[in-house]
Structure formats: structure tokens, C-alpha cells
Amino acid sequence: MTQTVSARQRRQTPGTPCWASLMVRDLDRSRDFYQGLFGWEFTAGPQQLGPYVRAVLDGREVAGLGETPSGRRFPAAWTPYLASDDADETAALIRLCGGTVAVGPLDFGDTGRLVVAADPGGAAFGVWQSDEDTGVQVVENAPGTPVWFELLTHTTAGPGAFYPSVFGYGTKPDPGGDEQDRLTLLVGDRPVATVRGTDGARPSAHGPHWKTCFAVRDVEDTVRRARELGGRLVREPHPTPYGVRATVADAEGAEFSVREQPGASGDAS
Question: Lower CB count within 10 Å: N or C terminus of the chain?
């Protein structure tokens, strides 16, 4: 499986995952967790939707953390943002294809235009439009950075039609696991994400959802540190064709995966 979030060298091709963002109830607590786990530092980001910070690793932006508005109860969850050349047009396509738009399109600071949406199954994702080169600013496979995105859903049939209709993806069967119902989404001939069906079973307590996977040097050590920082183990470390992987939840319950990356570089682990 190819790493798809690359250095900020050119504008992202539409459909490419270009950012990951987490909404939480206690921003300070979550900052402490991810700083301890991945070595992230933080800088202030746009505040239109409430307190928001950008996570920085070795001087480069890697992800965003925002605080849920008071009185609104959303489950903490990592949300991928998919690149678009026209957020308004993409929002219209989302609605046309049966999805919903919860936020936007709106200008987010002076950096770009934003949409927060959900596919017809209810899985939340974002759309990001920028006139400049924006997004994750890291070298490939660097520990502590997003390395892959996966949609867990009841069946791939619906998402396998929705996302290509909105973003123009190609698809191919994904051989990367024992499950039979798996698809890879392609931008051109480049893999960018996986859709994994659960044979009709409920994907999780929150239903269909996107999961972000972060690169690490040592999965066992990362799991240990996540527990020490107030997180919990969701799925034990296990081998995959792409490296040892585990799923953990942070101090607020937001689940994400960590995966050892062959040839990973960088200072965080």
C-alpha cells in the first residue's frame, strides 16, 4: 500500500487525502496526549469554528485539533480531508449523490475553503480547496504523520459508487487482508485510501467511519505510551502486508491506527 500524503511541493490532485483533523471536548488534554505520543508541537490555526490548533512536527504541519463548541456533543473522531479544486462544486456533488453537508462551504482563515460532509452511510469526511500548496507538510512515511486512510462501512457497494462519483476515483479490489469486501480508491493509478466492508455487521459503536493511520517506528512502544497517556488498546498489534499495525483510542476515545513503516524517516516515533 503506497503512502499518499506527501511533502507540500505542489497543489494536491482532487480526491487526494491532504489533511486530518480531530474535534475534541478538551483541547488541552488532547494536545498533551498527542505531544506525548508523537512529539507534536502546536501553533494557532483559524478560529471560525472555535479553538483550533495545527500540529507541527520538525517545523512542518501534520494535522489539526479543534475544540467542539460548548453544548454540542459529537463523538471524538479523526476526519480525513480530501482535496478539491472547487469546494462549492464538490458540496453540490455530495448532495446530488446522496450525501449531506454539515458545514460550509466556507472560507477557513486565509488559507482555503472548507466543507464538512458525510457520505450516504453517515461516515464524516472533509473537503479542502486551496489556491496554494497546502496540506500535510511532511516527508514520506515520517513517524508521527498520517500515512493511510480507511473507511469502515457495512458494505463497499454504496461508498464504492459515491466517492468515485464525487471525486472521480478509480477503484480496484484490495488484497491487503482476509476480508473479501475491500476496495482501494485510486487517483489516476495511485492508491489513496481503502474502503472495507464488514459484511453487514455494525462497523463500530459509531457506525460507518473513516479511520486515520499514523506512521510509527515501533508499534508495541507506541501502544505502551498511548496507555500511559490515558488511551487504550482497541486492537492488538498484528502483521499486515504493509507493516505491523495496531488500533488505539486516545484519552477522549477517538480511535486511530498506528503502523510501522519500512524505511520511515524523521525524529518522532
Answer: C
